[in-house]
Amino acid sequence: MRKISVECPTSNLDEYRRLAELACELGATHLSASQVELSMWQWNVNRYDPYPNWSLHRPTIFKFIVPEELKGYLPEDYAKRNLDTLVKRVEILKEFGLKATFNGMEPAYLPEKVFRDHPKWRGPRCDQPRRARTEYYAPCIDNPEVRAMYVRTIGELCKVAPFELFQLMTNDSGGGLCWNNRLYPGPNGPEVCRDIPIGERVVNFLGMFQEGAALAGLHDVEVNTRNIIEPDVPAVLPLLKKGQSINNRTLNSVISTDIVGFHNYYLDYSNPIARLTRLPKVADHIQQIIGKEDNNIMLAFRDLDEIDTIGFVKKYYRTMKKGVIGKYTALLEMAESFVGKDNAETLVEAWELTGQVYDRFEHLDTGGHIFVLGTVQQRWLTRPLVAFPAELKPEEKNYYREFQFQAQTEADADNLLDLQANRWLSGVGGRTLYRMVYQRTLPLLKQAISKMSSLIPCAVDETAKQYITSQSEKLKVWKCLMTNAMNVISFQFYLDETDYSTPPADKSYDISTQGDIRFYKMSEIVRTEINNMLELIDILRGAKQPVIHQAESKEFENIMLLGPDLIEQLEKKISIMENHRRDFERLYKSFNK
Description:
Elements: E1 4-7, H1 13-25, E2 30-32, H2 40-44, H3 76-96, E3 99-105, H4 112-117, E4 122-125, E5 137-139, H5 144-160, E6 163-169, H6 198-215, E7 222-226, H7 233-236, E8 244-246, E9 257-261, H8 279-289, E10 296-300, H9 307-316, H10 323-339, H11 344-361, H12 370-376, H13 394-401, H14 410-414, H15 427-454, H16 462-496, H17 517-542, H18 566-579
Parallel strand pairs: 1-2, 1-10, 2-3, 3-6, 6-7, 7-8, 9-10
Antiparallel strand pairs: 4-5
């Protein structure tokens, strides 16, 4: 039976009800119900280790119910909050005739004390060694006690929420199966289960969820797990049982799911900007499902306030005609609903230009896009550009250092281009690569900003005006993020080319450039970045709707989410850069001394 599922993060039950209404209107059969409160307690165990940040937002079984065996190890109050919310979500789903899906990660790592007290439960090491300061272990699901604990807890969970579909990620982000080739440290686990064939282990894992669901009277549950590497797939497929799949594949078929919209944080190349338009790409997604009557469909939204995508999907995901004419007829009609017939083409052009900018940046992705790995996770946006970052005082450094994804040395942390132990943007090659993209893309972005801004007076109503205004602001923020990346990459390039042991000396005897040209270059970068941040602050202060993803409170600021006090952090960055502006004289001969 074809599944039409809807995914969208929600902040409260009122929003979830709105989402269920939308799903019902779209003819959906399934709605994700497994979103959890950020599990900050996992990171708070050791704030010096960034790795748990991969897991904070990921649902796991024990984040809803703490079994008797794990009481005292996992926070029951946190699990109860998630379970209470889940109960209320299920009531809403029943009201609208929707089925619940669980989208999560298993088997997920457990606190080290669990394995000290129960050594036979210790399964594979599942962290990425260069991105973690501590080893993290998932439980061994081949251990009978562990498996029984899972089956029982899944049964309890399914009595509360009749999940009929489990979509599971494993072997990534702090979870994994014993002796699996996809584990970051390599195949590992307890010796006792080393010789269990990969197919038998995976089927045992998938069966765990079906057995647990059966305890709740659910006998047609489907379970899919991804991140099984392709060389292992042939060994697993023949052993799969009814309702089981890996990487969306069964022995005889591929369970095709076409995605309309965007649900993957790492594939949204404008992050951390909130809901920058992707409408032409959404139109492409809809074109791809035309005529595919048997494929499952996932309708994925980034926010319930994503009014352009939601409105477009509502109107066209079943009715759009094939081809270029069908696509642009729909986009023009949608644009007309925002700015009227006379201005619709200009809005479509702004959407198209924005899409072209996305496409130009798509390749800057190495396990995460640079605006995720750099702008956010290395805090390019908020950390100051200074000549001697190691000399910054705690009050000048802690506000950003705590939120860097950096598990190596402090020297690595001070290097702006160390992106999760990878420096692929360093040197002449990295700088040239980004500069070419930046210089060739900036004119397109400026055109998009100009066209979008010009349409504000043309909006047909207040809602449309808010949308056009907000999109214009987000495009301007995007320009600030791109410029910030250019400044950071260039700044580190000059630092890397500097011999810190050589006293400053004149490098030119031309009176107009006497001194060291690098002093001028670094001063220019500093000034450009300060002006860039001032521009960003003005945009943030003037915005009436959120334009950047930020934590709802300081309590929930984490490595993957900027803080609620972003403006104050940007102002602090500027002040620190101004205070250390003359530090470059210790490296390069000044022009005026």
